Amino acid sequence: MGLFKKRKYFTINLVNKDREEDASQPNIPHGMWVKCIKCNKISYGKTVEQNYKICPNCGGYFRLSAKERLESIIDCDTFTEFDSDMISKDPLSFPGYNEKLEKEKKKSSLNDGVITGKGKINGLETIVAIMDSNFMMGSMGTVVGEKITRAIEKATELKLPIIIFTCSGGARMQEGILSLMQMAKTSAALKVHDKKGLLYISVITDPTTGGVTASFASLGDIIIAEPKALIGFAGRRVIEGTINQKLPEEFQTAEFMLEHGFIDKIVKRQDMKNTLGKLLKIHNINRRGKDE
């Protein structure tokens, strides 16, 4: 399999820093071993990599970067990125925000929390937007909202389906009301796309919360989630404190959402590309039938 060429975002370095200069100690390459945050067990990095970044011990999912996600679902050499140079400003002069943005750019190698573009899945052309938790936990600010809106509008213009992978902590507080406005903007663009009879597939990954859940993540014609993904608006403690009730243990998981009709299907990571390909194929056949 070997889907992922880099192990940048999920590795840990088990080398004792105090011993790095000691030639008598074994030199363990960075990223050789990885620790699962679900079961706390350590696995050989290459084994996890070859297993679609799924823990071989407990089946827990390591989070993927947007670039890794692209590599796993988009046909080789078919992706064209949109708006790669778009960067966030500091509209509210929020203390420390510019410094935070620069730090996140270096850490994630991204200009903001989403990658958008056009590519093919099993030979079928589609527009995609993929959020990345490595940039401020995938929070939605003006750039994330604008890039996703432009991707939706491009899909409408080209009469193509759009697939959005969500992973977000919600709206970005440093941009205040401007970040909340992105909920309405993305939703309005999807309404226009829908009126053209075009397909929108929402793929919810862990975690998807706040304003993203309350807007475009929940508006898909088909809503898919990865196993055990956290999906919700407010946090568990906030809800329990409001209603004075204890919530079920599985509350806000993909499995809970499927049982209660909020999503359509849970798809394992290794099956994601073929599942999306089948949905795109069915949609293309149906559209051809209507056009004829």
TrEMBL record:
Keywords: ATP-binding, Cytoplasm, Fatty acid biosynthesis, Fatty acid metabolism, Lipid biosynthesis, Lipid metabolism, Metal-binding, Nucleotide-binding, Transferase, Zinc, Zinc-finger
Upper lineage: Bacteria, Bacillati, Bacillota, Clostridia, Eubacteriales
Cofactor note: Binds 1 zinc ion per subunit.
Organism in which the protein naturally occurs: Clostridium fallax
EC number: 2.1.3.15
Protein name: Acetyl-coenzyme A carboxylase carboxyl transferase subunit beta
Family classification: Belongs to the AccD/PCCB family.
PROSITE patterns referenced in this protein's UniProt entry, alphabetically: COA_CT_NTER (PS50980)
Function statement: Component of the acetyl coenzyme A carboxylase (ACC) complex. Biotin carboxylase (BC) catalyzes the carboxylation of biotin on its carrier protein (BCCP) and then the CO(2) group is transferred by the transcarboxylase to acetyl-CoA to form malonyl-CoA.
Cellular compartments annotated: Cytoplasm
